[in-house]
Specification:
Layout lengths: L8 E5 L4 H12 L3 E6 L2 H10 L7 E4 L5 H15 L5 E4 L14 H29 L3 E6 L3 H4 L5 H21 L4 E8 L12 H9 L9 H12 L10 E4 L6
Parallel strand pairs: 1-2, 1-4, 2-3, 4-5, 5-6, 6-7
């Protein structure tokens, strides 16, 4: 089997969560050396050891909303491999759901700090090193279908993910001249821990209006991410691909 990535270094944020775990597994399967990062160190160790060729990979604690933490992860990666990452999959994300009248400033700010500010900080650090070295690279940011349509009780989350989509398109325009591609994926309702907070009656309604009549699997998102990071998508940048089972059709 031909390796898609040939040992290129890929950084995955949010690698302790369902989609991030799946992305890490698929990238390792496809021949990347994966730097799995998350704020949850226990989940990281489990995740790293479960990847194919576990000695090829590195597990590092990362708070994406803290610029010093971001810089530290890139330096530790360089110290370990001798090079910085050239591929980036940003799956770090949180929810703090509440209706507008009950949503407080802390809940709103926490979600934007992780989901949007974190996307900015990590991508900026990657780009800085890519441009210094003259290497090309690829980024995939994880947005959400909620970014396009909104969702009751998720004003903060929807706003953060809409920002990720806009940030992806803007930076794709900036970075294309340097051979750096930036795309994003908009998952629908995927079978992860995050989805378990959705009330059963709401989930039934969502499945009813989803043409494929089921939730997605994390691996189905991860396969698209791998494609977008690989040279198979070499003429794609600024694209935002929905993986929703047809929810928005």
């Amino acid at each position: 089997m031909v390796s898609l990535f040939g040992g290129r270094i890929a950084l995955v944020t949010g690698a302790g969560g369902g989609i991030g775990q799946a992305i890490s597994r698929i990238l390792a399967r496809d021949g990347a050396r994966v730097v799995v990062t998350d704020i949850n160190e226990k989940e990281l160790r489990i995740q790293s050891s479960s990847l194919i060729n576990p000695n090829d990979h590195l597990a590092l604690h990362l708070n994406v909303s803290d610029s010093s933490s971001v810089k530290s992860v890139f330096q530790e990666t360089k110290n370990h491999y001798g090079n910085y990452p050239v591929l980036l999959a940003q799956a770090a994300g949180i929810t703090r759901d509440n209706f507008l009248k009950k949503l407080d400033e802390k809940q709103f700010t926490e979600v934007l700090d992780v989901n949007l500010k974190g996307t900015f900080l990590v991508q900026k650090e990657l780009i800085t090193h890519l441009e210094e070295s003259g290497e090309t690279g690829a980024v995939v940011n994880i947005s959400s279908i909620v970014a396009k349509h909104g969702n009751m009780g998720q004003g903060n989350y929807a706003a953060s993910k809409a920002g990720v989509e806009a940030f992806t398109k803007s930076t794709a325009k900036e970075l294309g001249k340097n051979g750096i591609r930036v795309n994003c994926v908009l998952p629908g309702f995927i079978d992860t821990e995050m989805i378990k907070t959705v009330p059963e009656n709401v989930m039934s309604m969502l499945l009813y209006v989803t043409p494929l009549k089921r939730m997605g699997k994390p691996e189905e998102v991860a396969e698209v991410v791998s494609f977008l990071l690989s040279d198979k998508s070499s003429f794609m940048t600024g694209a935002c691909i929905e993986v929703t089972g047809g929810l928005s059709v």
